[in-house]
Amino acid sequence: MGSVNDFTLDLSELQFVYEGLARPENVLAERDGTLWTPDNRGALTRIDPDGTMTTVGSIAPECNGFALNADGTTFTIANIGNGIVYTMDRDGNHSVLLDEIDGHPLGSANDVFIDSKDRMWISVSTRANPWFLAAAVPRPDGYIILWDEKGPRVVADGIYFTNEIKMDADERYLYAAETMKARILRFPVHEDGSLGDAEVYGPDGLDRGAYVDGFAFDAEGNIWVTPITRNGLGIITPDGDYHAVFEDVNGPALENAIAKIESNTLAPEDLFACVGPTLQFPTSVTFAGPDLRTVYIGSLAMTHLVTFESPVPGLPLRHWH
């Protein structure tokens, strides 16, 4: 395998593919080359291996993180706009799976992860809705739900905007992007699914204004992360070091947004001004292709996907096996 320790890319080395998407915040890859991404015009868009794009389903805008079950028949989709988690089949038929917990609305449901035991983990960014309230005034009200044979229950709380969640290869830890602290957390996973205390993995603050959104593991245990407001991609190595692979930072806008966040005065236009000239709000990392070396980057603000080849393969997700 190659090494990622010194791996960087110039923006000119990136490719832009599948133009015409609407808020492709996340990307899911199947073995046969099919890609799926959220789409504000329906629920998901399927991208066939020949490049044909078909929007599937009809769910409220802002479908966000999602997962595919082990047999490839059912998606579980977190809608951050209306705070509801749905199930949907490949033809677009959907139903509500979860819209409250402990007698209260979920809040801003963000992401779904299915582990090798077919337990479902759901991240909720904040109990507030709309989600932007917890970016404008950061608050520790994000949490994580586990749904197993006992049903759904909260297993972690007090997080500053819980974003994507995933497990490492041996599933000893559950990892979470804590966006408004610009860092990755991990929680020891006990046999019964309960979680131990959170610990920071890698730097406590990846970089100035590096509000991390999504991430993925590669086969060597590195974590590839997307600092959304730096319009970039970086890598946390198993020894805890971090470096940027590429960035498209809008410096003045980012500094203004940081100042507004620190003073609890951030407005939507302050945040969205941080988009770069080439990359706009990358949010997720997905390894695809027969060797899991083709990387796709999803985003909030682009109408296409970004892609490049990785020197190391990715860690396959549950549906890949």
Q: If you had to describe this structure to a student in words, what would you say it looks like?
A:
This protein is globular. The mean pLDDT is 98. It has one domain (11-320): Neuraminidase (6 Propeller), CATH 2.120.10. The strands form 7 sheets. A 4-stranded antiparallel beta sheet has the order 1-26-25-24, with no helix packed on it. The chain has a 4-stranded antiparallel beta sheet with strand order 2-3-4-5, with no helix packed on it. It is built from 3 helices and 26 strands. With 321 residues, it is mainly β. Strand 21 (223-227) and strand 22 form a beta hairpin.
Précis, in short:
The chain has 321 residues and is mainly beta. It is built from three helices and 26 strands.
Q: What Rg do the Cα atoms give?
A: 18 Å
Strand order of the largest sheet: 1-26-25-24
Low-pLDDT segments? none
Shape: globular
Order of helices and strands: EEEEEEEEEEEEEHEEEEEEEEEEHHEEE
Total helices: the number is 3
So, CATH architecture? 6 Propeller
> What is the CATH class?
Mainly Beta
Q: CATH superfamily membership, which one?
A: TolB, C-terminal domain
State the domain count: 1
C-alpha termini separation:
21 Å
What percentage of the residues does DSSP assign to strands (E)? 35-45%
Question: How do the strands and helices of this protein lay out in sequence?
Answer:
Blueprint: E1 15-17, E2 28-29, E3 35-38, E4 44-47, E5 53-56, E6 63-68, E7 74-79, E8 84-89, E9 94-98, E10 100-101, E11 104-105, E12 109-114, E13 120-124, H1 133-136, E14 142-148, E15 151-159, E16 162-167, E17 173-178, E18 183-188, E19 199-201, E20 212-217, E21 223-227, E22 233-236, E23 242-246, H2 251-262, H3 268-272, E24 282-288, E25 294-299, E26 305-309
Antiparallel strand pairs: 1-26, 2-3, 3-4, 4-5, 6-7, 7-8, 8-9, 10-11, 12-13, 13-14, 14-15, 16-17, 17-18, 18-19, 20-21, 21-22, 22-23, 24-25, 25-26
